[in-house]
Each structure stands twice: as structure tokens, then as C-alpha cells.
Amino acid sequence: xxxxxxxxxxxxxxxxxxxxxxxxxxxxxxxxxxxxxxxxxxxxxxxxxxxxxxxxxxxxxxxxxxxxxxxxxxxxxxxxxxxxxxxxxxxxxxxxxxxxxxxxxxxxxxxxxxxxxxxxxxxxxxxxxxxxxxxxxxxxxxxxxxxxxxxxxxxxxxxxxxxxxxxxxxxxxxxxxxxxxxxxxxxxxxxxxxxxxxxxxxxxxxxxxxxxxxxxxxxxxxxxxxxxxxxxxxxxxxxxxxxxxxxxxxxxxxxxxxxxxxxxxxxxxxxxxxxxxxxxxxx
Length: 283
What we know:
- By secondary structure, the protein is α/β, with parallel strands linked by helices.
- The chain has a domain at 4-85 and 184-282: TIM Barrel (Alpha-Beta Barrel), CATH 3.20.20.140.
- Helices cover 46% and strands 16% of the residues.
- The chain has helices at 20-29, 44-56, 87-113, 120-127, 134-143, 150-158, 173-182, 200-207, 221-234, 263-282; strands at 4-9, 34-37, 59-70, 73-80, 186-189, 211-215, 237-240, 260-261.
- The chain has an eight-stranded mixed sheet with strand order 7-6-5-4-3-2-1-8.
- It is globular.
């Protein structure tokens, strides 16, 4: 059997349902050689995940998924093989966490004004210790019977242009790319087929983008082919993953729904070593 990897998984350190330890054990059970925990705007799940991975014998690639905004479009940048102790990255992620909390407070207040009687305490209870976000608000709306699904909560209330939407703290894709590079990581454009703006890719390349997520549950075969060819054209690293959140995301994503060959992980490591050598030469 070929060695396989899933490089896009969320835990309850951000908006996933399960703990890093549970995620690691589930991946081991499914036969994965390597996974990456890529929580939204936080590295707090990596430490627990690394310990669990060492205990049970599965490789964990340190990761993060940074939310950015460019020309009113949400663009996510994945970072792999990062130094989780990097000070600048952690300080920026902490600022983003604090802004998330303020944003959710305003969003709940707006929903209350609109007649949706949900409590802020309940939203924070649902989010637990992780980075709070719109999926937690959506889950409470669903649990209290205001919507039938998390997707409905987003399409009716919580997405840009909807009545309860509050704009987020804005960090740009170039800023995220530089933060990841400065933390010794590999910046990769997440699920480009979800919010397609392929004209942005050449610009991101100039900013230091090194890879693109080719395989994702929301990429159909046509999208996979398109981004595979694009990655080859620009000599970009290719990644992929299930974007698993547990039941906190009702889009039908599941662990194991996307499997990539481990050779792609090895290519990430080779590029990481090249970056280290280049830095030493500059220093």
C-alpha cells in the first residue's frame, strides 16, 4: 500500500469538533502515514497533536490556515512545516484571535436585534478553548431551531451581504505569506476553487507563494486538473486534504475523503531544506 497523507485537518483548537489527540488517532486508524493540523489562525493544537503523533507512530506536519482578505474576497493561506514558537507569527495570531472574539460579540448582538435570541455565553461554550468563529454561531442557531443546517445559517445570515455579517479583522495574503516564510514555513494557497480568482495567483507568486492545494473536497475533477496544470506551469508544490472539521462543517467533508501520496510531503520537506540553506547563505 502506498503511503498516504491528509494535509488539511481542523481540531477544536479552532472550529473543528475533535481534539488534536482524537484527530491523530483517527488518522492512524485510517492508515495515514502523515497528517497536518491546519487550524484557523492558531497553532495551539500543534503541541498536543505532536505529542499524540509521537506516542502512536504517525507523522504530524505542523501547520496553520491563515484567513486573509484581498479586494473583499476571503483568501486562505496554509502554512506547513512552520516553527510553532516563532514570536512574530504567534503575536499576529493572538491579535487575530482577540479580534475574532470582538467580531463574534458584535455578530451575536446583531442577531439579537434581528430577533434571533441566542446567547453569547452559549456561543463561547460551543467554541470551547479554540478560536471562535462563525461556525460556532451557526451551530447555536441550528441547535436552537432558527436554521436547519450550518450552511443555511451562513447563506441566510452570516456571509458577506447578509443581515448579521460583521467584517473581519483584515490581514492581506502577502502579509500571511511573509509571516509563514519568516516562521520557516511553506506558504500554500488553500482551496483556490472555492473562491476562484486565478488572476491573483501570479501576484501571490511574486509575494513568495510556494504551493497550491490541488486536491480538496470542493474541487471537482475539472478543478483538480486545472490547478494541477497551473502548479506544474509555475513550479508550485502541490498539496491536498479533507478540510475535516467533524460535524462542525456540514458540507459532507470527512477524514479520508481526500488522500494524497506521501511523495508530496517529501517534496515539502525538500523545499524546506532549500529555504534553510538559502537563509544560511544570506546570513
